[in-house]
User: What shape does this take?
Amino acid sequence: MNPITLFLVVVCVLVGAFTSKTIGPMAGAPFLLLAVVIAASLKMANVWQRFVVLRAGKLQGVKGPGLFLIIPVLDTVTAVIDQRIQTTAFNAEQALTRDTVPVNVDAIIFWQVHDAEKAALEITDYRQAIDRVAQTSLREMIGSSMLSALLSDRRNADQKLRAEIAEKTGPWGVSVNSVEIRDVAIPVALQDAMSREAQAEREKQARVILGSAEAEIAAKFVEAAQAYANHPAALQLRAMNIIYETTKERGATILMPTAMVDAMNPAVAMALAGQASAPAAPGPAPKPA
Assistant: This one.
């Protein structure tokens, strides 16, 4: 009983009791009868509620929100429909995917009654029906999907599942706002196999990248070797630079052969470079026989 109806009934009862004491026992009977009529006929629906009223077994109308009156005995409220967004959790256990992999899928559906008349008259229990339809649609979707697509593209699976459920619940006056797959559980043995497969794929990619890097390094070494072969002075300067970079660290001691020190002498290096670039001297002419 809503607060307004309760207040009016209490007022009528108090007035009837006061009248019975002051005037007579029968004087308060009309007020008590009025309290019963008000309690049976005055209804109030909240803003999210719709009352489906039948009169003598036929549809009288959908009432609400606010206060409304019904005729006692003739009118009955057959259903009170909540038009707010509702949530229903459902799952599918040991459902086989298209590639015959057993999975356990948990999902949740957000739905709303947009036609209270259909929800009350077209189906016995629309809440239970939504749960059953959601479960069967989920199993159908799993059976038509590959495991890889189910794991990687959940958004597409959500949209597909929402469309299938909405098509079935539409004639009941129920609209489906969204469906979200919360979890896809696969067997432990399959998880280990997929983990090993992913690890092997990453190892393969790492080896390919490492081989490509080695090939590039080898090409650069060949190019540097050709440059040093054509310019011996550059090789000497490079050796001196390496020694300099090494001796920058404090406390480092380097032992080098005397021949290497002499070879890195700039004068010697320039002489070697000159000899490499100068044309070869002609040899002595052969003696006539």
Q: What stands out?
A: The chain has three domains: 3-82, 86-186, 201-248+257-271.
